Amino acid sequence: MPDLATLSVTGPPVAGAQVVSRIALLLRLVGRDPSGSQLADIVRDSGLTRPTVHRLLSSLAAEGLLVLDPTSHTWRYGPEIFVMGTVAAPRYPIEELARPALQRLADATGESAFLSIRRGLETVCLMREEGSFPVRSFVLHEGVRFPLGVASAGLAILSALPDPEVDQVLTAQAGLTERWGAQNAAANIRLNVQATRERGCALNPGLILEGSWGMGAAIFDHAGRPTWALSLTGIEPRFRPDRQELLGGLLRQEAALLTARLAEL
C-alpha cells in the first residue's frame, strides 16, 4: 500500500529504489507480530514471489536485521533493529510521555490502553498497558498495522485530517474491503469519520472482529497534524452507550494533555 508521501513524487526513478522499497515492506511485515511471522504470510501480504522473499529475508538475516527462529520457523527482528531503535529513541520522546497516560487510562477504565502512530496510510501500535478487567480483546498489540480509518486509532487520526486529505487517503486505499470487509468500504468509513467528528472520539463497534470494540482520540504534533492516537479496546459489554461517554472523555483528556506536552518540547 503506497505512502501518501510517494503519491506526489513525479521525478525519475532512483536506481535501486525498488529493492529498497521491497526491503522496507518486508521489514514492516515481519514487525507486525512480535512472536514471529511465517514465510507464507509474508509472501502472501507482500505480493512478491516466494524465492524473492526468501532471498531478501536471508540477506537481511545475514546483516543482523532479522533472525529465523529454528523452532517455530518464523522471522523476527534481529539485534541490529534493536540497536537502531535504541539510538533513534531519544529523538522521539512520545513513548516516554505516553506511558503514564496509558497507565492512567488502564487504571481508570480496566480496559487495555494503546498508543499508535501514523505511518503513511496505516497506523502502527507502539505501546500497550493492560487493564485489570479479566476478559480482554487481543486484536491490537505492538507492531500491528491497520489502514487509516479501520481501527479506532486510525479512524481518530483520519477524522482529524482535512476533507481533501481524507479523500486522498480513501482513494489510495482502493480494494480495502477485500481484506477488511464491506463494513470498511470507503462510504462507510466516511460515515464513521463524520460520526467521530461529532462525538469527539472514534468508536469501532466490532468492525474488525465481532465483539471486540475500541475507542480512540488523536494526538497532534507541533504542526497541528494528527500523528498519534490513544485507544482503548475491550469486549462489547464494556462499551455500552452509557459507558462510552466516560471512556471518550478520558481519552480526549489524555490526548489533549499529550498534545500540550509535545508542544512544549
TrEMBL record:
Q: Which GO terms describe its molecular function?
A: DNA binding; DNA-binding transcription factor activity
Keywords, alphabetical: DNA-binding, Transcription, Transcription regulation
One GO process term, biological-process aspect? negative regulation of DNA-templated transcription
Residues annotated as domain IclR-ED: 80-264
Q: What range(s) does the HTH iclR-type domain occupy?
A: 17-79
User: Gene3D superfamilies, alphabetically?
Assistant: 3.30.450.40, Winged helix-like DNA-binding domain superfamily/Winged helix DNA-binding domain
Q: What is this protein called?
A: IclR family transcriptional regulator
Organism of origin? Cryobacterium frigoriphilum
